[in-house]
Amino acid sequence: METKDCFYLGRVTKPWGVKGQLVLFLDVDTPEDYAELDSAFVEVKGKLLPYFFHIDQLNGNKAVVTFEDITAEQAAALVGHELYLPLDLLPKLTGNQFYFHEVVGFRVVDSNHGDIGILEQVIEYPAQPLFQIMKNGVEVLIPVIDEVIDKVDRENKTIYINAPNGLIELYLGDLNR
To answer: I need a surface site. Which of 41, 79, 93, 177 has the fewest CB within 10 A?
Structure first.
């Protein structure tokens, strides 16, 4: 399994108690969806290795887990490592909700300016994720917020937006000239 076939679930944050338990931070919107999780891939030296565990406690985005078949010392060595799950385990989203990896390659159409271009990637900045769209070799950055996104059309791989006034002109000039 490779990271391109997986989604980031979270990370091992710290040891818990003296019996080799660990605290996981689950970087997900609804951690309760993962309450029955019994395994994950842990990234170790650039490779994803499968680990089995059981969740002892789930409190918000933090889970106290006991890993199977490893010692307390081996468990402690996993602190700081990232956790991944296969993409097919992601809950399906509908409507205007989407996973960032899901919309890469979608066409972006603005309500005022029409076809802006193809979504190359979603850049995750701490304050605000941004769509990076390329139009005739020019990068256009659009904030990923509910007020901008009008519709996600999965069937036609198109995102319809209503960009803030002047934003697209900032990148591409006046398209009506």
So the answer is: 177
Terminal Cα distance for the chain, rounded: 50
What is the number of alpha carbons within 13 Å of residue 107 lying toward its C-beta? 8
How many C-beta atoms surround the C-beta of residue 136 within 10 A? 6
Beta strands in 29-155 (DSSP E): 39-44, 47-59, 62-67, 82-86, 107-110, 114-124, 129-135, 138-143, 149-153
The alpha carbons of the chain give a radius of gyration, in whole angstroms, of: 20
The model's pLDDT over 4-13, given as tens digits with 9 standing for 90+, comes to 889 999 999 9
* 0.90 surpassed by pTM: no
**9 contacts 61 by C-beta, under 8 angstroms:** no
